Amino acid sequence: xxxxxxxxxxxxxxxxxxxxxxxxxxxxxxxxxxxxxxxxxxxxxxxxxxxxxxxxxxxxxxxxxxxxxxxxxxxxxxxxxxxxxxxxxxxxxxxxxxxxxxxxxxxxxxxxxxxxxxxxxxxxxxxxxxxxxxxxxxxxxxxxxxxxxxxxxxxxxxxxxxxxxxxxxxxxxxxxxxxxxxxxxxxxxxxxxxxxxxxxxxxxxxxxxxxxxxxxxxxxxxxxxxxxxxxxxxxxxxxxxxxxxxxxxxxxxxxxxxxxxxxxxxxxxxxxxxxxxxxxxxxxxxxxxxxxxxxxxxxxxxxxxxxxxxxxxxxxxxxxxxxxxxxxxxxxxxxxxxxxxxxxxxxxxxxxxxxxxxxxxxxxxxxxxxxxxxxxxxxxxxxxxxxxxxxxxxxxxxxxxxxxxxxxxxxxxxxxxxxxxxxxxxxxxxxxxxxxxxxxxxxxxxxxxxxxxxxxxxxxxxxxxxxx
Length: 468
Known about the structure:
FAD/NAD(P)-binding domain, single chain, 31% helix, 13 helices, 3 domains, five-stranded parallel sheet, globular, alpha/beta, five-stranded antiparallel sheet
């Protein structure tokens, strides 16, 4: 049994590497055990490839449907295979720069290829080898979860993983799901030219976001020709003549939907099976995620966990944050650093984008806060008019009496970039007056944060440029 490590990390994604880097900075010798492709979900199957293809699809679609008079771009036929190949090249390059080269830069990190399985709380087996250590971090991520639908196991369907590697563009596609993963693929393929139908179980898409944003995004997507059906109960799936047929119940009536491809994008499940967790007593919640405390410690004192394997929120930024905290508490046991997820921004990279941070209106009210709320349309944001895309809105939730900003929720072009000013404001308990007092660059989309703050005090439709 090899025992040259102070810490063994099972997993090879963002949480694992953030943990390994932090541990080595504290003087530890670390092993990373990974059976799959190094880099985890974000690099290989998530953030990087999806956003790359989304951008490509936007350029293709909006160049034909731009809002500037006098510009009529003639296009050659789409070479979808070449677009995917360029995406693959980018992923390969970033895998080298962000992961493989990191191993070379940190000699105290050893990469072990294979599947790690616990034999005890001090030992794991990887292939035919056994490795021992005093501390472990589990960072095995999550995988697409599949609905238990009659006939689905007899049909060739796609998950978000396979949907990134198609070399031929489908003529039509049914997408099961209406949350962030589903909607990014919805618009990506629709923009490339696929006829897309969305089947969503909830009564609205992105049901965890503010209702105003959900309704507006629904309209913008349908305006682009995407068919969205909500309140759907999936009954069965079958394949006939090369077409996928999904039978649903909608409002008490059965209806069939038919398409060339079927994408199942109904959430993600933590990767906990096959790790031998039951042998050592690591407890899971009812969704199969590893239960951790604020220090990222599991029910077994010397075993920590970080990232998607611990459940929601499954964000790469959260995973890396948790990985560093787990490593610091595992190696430097004096500080008891805690993960603070009270202010975590998230974004959905449709066009326009959705971004949110802090409390939603209902959350604040349910918490017992007295709040006031303003929602402004993006036609009041000068930069939106300049770029000829006023689709969007911004909703700000403020504590009544103190004017402290509790939450900001945006639907607009580049909302994922704009949200960071709101994140600073929420995290630092800034007031609308402090935001108004900041001089913003004009014209910018981020000026929408200031205009939203001003809307609590005056009619912003009657303001000149940059006026307070």
